[in-house]
Amino acid sequence: MAPRIAMVAGEASGDLLASHLIRAIKRHCPDAQFYGIGGPKMQAEGFDARWPSELLAVHGYVDALKRYRELSGIRKALLKDILRNRPSAFIGVDAPDFNLWLEGKVKSAGLPAVHFVSPSIWAWRGGRIKRIARSVTRMLCLFPFEPEIYDRAGVPVSYVGHPLADVFPLEPSRAAARERLGLSAKLRVVAMLPGSRQSEVRNLGETFIATARLMAERNPDAVFLVPLATRETRELFQEAMHRQEAGELPIRLLFGHAVDAMTAADVVLVASGTATLEAALLKRPMVITYRMGKWQYRLMKRMAYLPWVGLPNVLCGESVVPELLQDEATPERLAEALEAWLANASACAELEQRFTELHLTLRQNTAEKAAAAILPYLGDNPQWRAAHKPA
């Protein structure tokens, strides 16, 4: 009988990750069927989306509380379907706050529950490992230091690498990216990524513009690329430019094209998040920054376990690039840190080599490895099902 797999993927990143996984599983099980909560990329692979993945795009505690009843109802409806129709397995892609509850119920019912993308228990809220151990049949990890954490807790785990490392070239072409963007090879190009969320652009937009002003005064050949993901964030940044009277600055706003902007750049100023990993895979020197509400920052700092927030530093286990956060994120200090990279070609070359080694570690053919870890749960596996038969 063809395997049926229930899946939940949250937001655009989960939709992309899950679409690659569906394609990889279908290479081994062409007749496999997938359904649940997903996005357009999953649907393009034949996924039956009962609900769209953007429903799970919740930003912050306030938004989560406002939508709790709606999301809880969707989750219970999907669980009812899973328990009634008993698919071969359930796969939760990221969205841990939504998926771990479902996975626990599915596992208790004697069905395999796989979670793809480990929550950041190594950074904060490490106590979640106990809940994860109760909830999942197998954890699929993107980073090489994560499996040891799950091994200690007795959670079956597989390291599958990071999908971006499969997609990004080992030797990105700065010249080709500049040609695509219509930029001269002689320019000093600074990519500035203030974040994908409106709150991030509000908190960092004016600081980024003031930083560009300082750098432009000292570097007349500089141009500043600011890729923005949505119309709303673009409008917020334009409003900040108007307040700063920055019309004369060589700032070029891009709609998307973040990867091209970073590839073309000599140095990158980037808000903490996935974009820092993208910059590392593109082998670019960077300065990582972030700013949030004072009390929120104090709470996050108290809960954090590591001395870094940026993924390049976390993955390398040391401060390979500067992090200027909160009150340290002043235009003067950011400009100084960016110009330090521009003035030190040997440091940039050393960092490029370090990031190449990191890239090779993360490049594991993620979708295929994830599929290989999941396939044993899809067939008629009497030993596994006997061991996990519900009481």
From TrEMBL:
User: Which pathway is this protein engaged in?
Assistant: Bacterial outer membrane biogenesis; LPS lipid A biosynthesis
Q: Which organism is it from?
A: Azoarcus indigens
Q: Which family does it belong to?
A: Belongs to the LpxB family.
* Cited function: Condensation of UDP-2,3-diacylglucosamine and 2,3-diacylglucosamine-1-phosphate to form lipid A disaccharide, a precursor of lipid A, a phosphorylated glycolipid that anchors the lipopolysaccharide to the outer membrane of the cell.
Does the keyword field hold Iron? Answer: no
A Gene Ontology molecular function term for this protein is: lipid-A-disaccharide synthase activity
Q: Which InterPro entries does this one have?
A: Glyco_trans_19 (IPR003835)
The organism that produces this protein has a lineage beginning with: Bacteria, Pseudomonadati, Pseudomonadota, Betaproteobacteria, Rhodocyclales
Please provide the record's keywords in A-Z order.
Glycosyltransferase, Lipid A biosynthesis, Lipid biosynthesis, Lipid metabolism, Transferase
One GO BP on record is: lipid A biosynthetic process
PANTHER family in UniProt: LIPID-A-DISACCHARIDE SYNTHASE, LIPID-A-DISACCHARIDE SYNTHASE, MITOCHONDRIAL-RELATED
Q: Reaction(s) catalyzed by this protein?
A: a lipid X + a UDP-2-N,3-O-bis[(3R)-3-hydroxyacyl]-alpha-D-glucosamine = a lipid A disaccharide + UDP + H(+)
Name the Pfam families on file.
Answer: LpxB
Name assigned to this protein: Lipid-A-disaccharide synthase
Its EC number(s) = 2.4.1.182
